[in-house]
Amino acid sequence: MFRRLASTLLLAAPLTAFGQVMDIRSVTPPTPEILETLRLRQQEFEGYRREHLPFTEGGSGGPANCDETIGRFCYWYDERTTNVPREPEDVTRERTRFIAALDSGFRDFPGDRWTSGALVRYLVEAGRTSQAVGVAAECEVSGWWCHALSGFALHADRKYAASDSAWTRALRTMDPREACEFRDLKLLLDDGLLRSYRNVSCEERERQERRIWWLARPTLSTPGNDARTEFLSRRLYAVFLEDAPSIHSMGFDSDEREMMLRYGWARAWSRSKGFMQGTRAPVITGYEPTPAPPMLPMAATIANPALSDSIGWRGKGLPGVRARYSPDHARHLRALHHQAAIFRRGDTALVVMAWDVSRDSILAPRAGSNKLAAALVLTRGEEGDAGITRLASAPARGTLTATAPWGPTLMSAEVVASDASTLARARYGMRASEFPTSRVSISDLLLFEPYEGMPRRLDDVLPHVAPSQVVAEGSKVGIYWETYNTDPTGEGIQVNITVTPEDKGGGWLRRGLTALKLARESQPVSVGMTDMSARGRGYTPRAVVVDLATLKPGRYLMQLDVTATGTAPVRAERVITVR
What we know:
579 residues; alpha+beta; six-stranded mixed β-sheet
């Protein structure tokens, strides 16, 4: 949400309806009188809308608590805001009349750029997105304009793959310099990204843009890049407003353009009953969709996505967010309850990911149908290197595997209910433990739910993988791991497993109660065993079941140390929560 500090309020008379749309198309080009009439009607509509904005009481906005000050505008973000004003019915009715007038002009003259753009814009604004797609398809303006209209309309209609293709056609049709300027991201980039982007050629910028937009996607598993099409749609919306009256009486200027490119265009407006200090200009507040996470990852994440953590991708509490985006298909973004582990298969990384959304009131009812999809994506940072496994009809609990070239990788685990605009996601970097002083290496620890048998290889454990790192109090947990580069003729291996509180010191109250013997301290779990490496293969898969009955609720660090004959020990760790 943002407050726009406007000046004087323009008033205009209500609109009157145009005549019925003609069935016979004129063979003459549009006359200045027809265009002038349509533009006049736009001025009348925007003036009428401005005059009839709903009033709101003074709120928390204003220069004293702006997240960003952009020229004459104060922007602040508050996704808890629920009092977004409804558009007055009179304004809706007048827009409908204006759309009818535009439609009449467009049917006669589909080759007029302004008329086609205004019609698509106001159809989208009215929520008539499928009609906007149809109008864009009938556009006859030469050059890139009609492709761009299609990209804009298809994005609004949530057809992101088709929108992405339309925008690609539009950019390819533009003059190279014009396309470079249209794609320009400088207003959206933080200082770290801006330094490497600003002073390079358009060709190099385009390469950087492909990487940025790939990693900016809310879902890496779905076709089409809606983050990119959102930005390009904002660029086209700026073109719409450059030659049109603004909701603000000072008109559309560079300040409003920057505000819109960074945070999107408002979907609702209100005005304050008060005035700007020293003027008779009302304060106009625009409301964009929320919640709206950061639109782009941070510079460090773009450079090394495999080293990123989940906090950076969520963007909660980050100051000075340069740009935001609230995707229609993922308006509700939540953390995915899951477990993931990485294993080695020669020069390939195999990642196992299990999830559980059975307690999610939106996702769980859609389980087992085509309304719930799941995916596991592995990438080093470029769309061309991604390994993607998709499940079109996903259960509430399940397991997926995906492969990628061996080395650090970014994992994105996604469970999506697009019809409910809900995305449960886990996204962070993964890398295997490295022990350069040891001949052997070790995989991640994979927790599984104990069953009658004992897994002898990874395929055996997949049906039983625990869907999170949360363990029930008083229960047992299975642990599966693999030790690599062991002697295929057989060698002795020493294995030690310990489970200790993650915060050994604890809080002052806990320490005090323990000293007074009013709180029972958890007893560490320790298991040791002597093993022999697997014969006939270069790695050793193993599994054990550990009893955690002595652990009280809390967070614990599970450590597994493996020592092969004649080499340094290697260690794998996993944080678990006992509840």
